[in-house]
Design brief:
The structure is a homodimer. Chain A is mainly alpha-helical. Chain A has a single domain, classed as Winged helix-like DNA-binding domain superfamily/Winged helix DNA-binding domain (Arc Repressor Mutant, subunit A), CATH 1.10.10. In chain A, 47% of the residues lie in helices and 11% in strands. Chain A is built from six helices and three strands; from the N terminus they run αααβααββα. A three-stranded antiparallel beta sheet of chain A has the order 1-3-2. In chain A, a hairpin with a 2-residue loop joins β2 and β3. The longest helix of chain A has 14 residues. Chain A is elongated, with a radius of gyration of 17 Å. The two termini of chain A are 33 Å apart. The N terminus of chain A is likely disordered. Chain A binds a DNA duplex through α4 and α5.
Amino acid sequence: MAIPTAPAPPAAAAARPEAVAACCAPLTREPLSAGAASDLARTLKALADPARLRLLSLVAAHEGGEACACDLVASLGLSQPTVSHHLKVLVEAGLLTRDKRGVWAYFALVPQALNALAAVLTVPTAAPPGGAG
Amino acid sequence: MAIPTAPAPPAAAAARPEAVAACCAPLTREPLSAGAASDLARTLKALADPARLRLLSLVAAHEGGEACACDLVASLGLSQPTVSHHLKVLVEAGLLTRDKRGVWAYFALVPQALNALAAVLTVPTAAPPGGAG
DNA sequence: AGCGGACATCCACAGCTGTCAATATCGACA
DNA sequence: TGTCGATATTGACAGCTGTGGATGTCCGCT
């Protein structure tokens, strides 16, 4: 473990969800720095779980684009604390937003976060005629 | 969508890299089945590691689109067994191909795998015209 | 054939992660 | 104010994962 990057607290990730995809350069343009790779991996780790993927799709497919936590618990077949934990991970990764109304908590997708992630992963299949610099 | 959660051995994943993104439906179209979520998570887990992300970018950014394992070991600052392990994970996930020439092993990107992944994650931000359904 | 180098595999270990029971917190309501 | 219900947090634990040292395997060279 020789990652000399700044030890930012995990809560900071939620404060800057735009850090997900940095700026623009796809994964394949130039070698990732250790810090950039760590940032990107943190977001991907939030995605790389069956329960969280299902949560995202449940929220996204729900009418109105948002879903109540109680619905998610019922749909997932996992315990309520476990679902709450997964939702927290997704919110802190900037992939979901949480809106608490009364006793209910509603979660909605953050499309730009997923799209930024998709943009980073996209590979230019056709080589540009101008040649790479 | 009745993905039967077949307990296929991990080696089978390399034989069907197109299984990464199933068919076409983005994550946000309809709730993922447990099997589909598990499949997608498996591929994302292969990506969700700083060392493997750097490996992918190193390979992709290397001239000729492929890189020798020795270069990767030198660039990553990790031990040779560790790099070999990460490369194996990426190959088994269908994200890299391995081509052994003599004593050297060359690794190349599988653009379609990453692009399929990106397609799954992409969220349609604008509603399709006339597609009120 | 013998040797050296490149890569893969095995083994062990520390740290992380998903899971749930128990509990705490907070808002709605009588 | 007291109770009920929804959600979040805590604590514990099993299983997974990243890592490196030691070793095996295979190829090229002398």
